[in-house]
């Protein structure tokens, strides 16, 4: 039986923290930035954690589960 492959899309989008939580980037920061305020763009720069409800799906995609 061959090894299970991780989903390439998930591999590129998520990182694991030291405590086992999953980090993600914010959406809406790639283009059409002129109409967004400086405060909003700065807030979107910082990483966020994946919600508890989505954690199991993402761990499955990353083959951590």
TrEMBL record:
Gene3D superfamilies in the cross-refs: 4.10.410.60
Gene Ontology BP terms: translation
Keywords: Ribonucleoprotein, Ribosomal protein
Annotated GO MF terms: structural constituent of ribosome
Membrane spanning stretches: none
InterPro entries, per the entry: Ribosomal_bL35 (IPR001706), Ribosomal_bL35-like (IPR021137), Ribosomal_bL35_CS (IPR018265), Ribosomal_bL35_sf (IPR037229)
GO cellular component, one term: cytosolic large ribosomal subunit
PANTHER family: 54S RIBOSOMAL PROTEIN BL35M (PTHR33343), LARGE RIBOSOMAL SUBUNIT PROTEIN BL35M (PTHR33343:SF1)
HAMAP family named in the record: Ribosomal_bL35
Family, per entry: Belongs to the bacterial ribosomal protein bL35 family.
Protein name from the UniProt record: Large ribosomal subunit protein bL35
Species this protein is from: Winogradskyella endarachnes
Gene (name only): rpmI
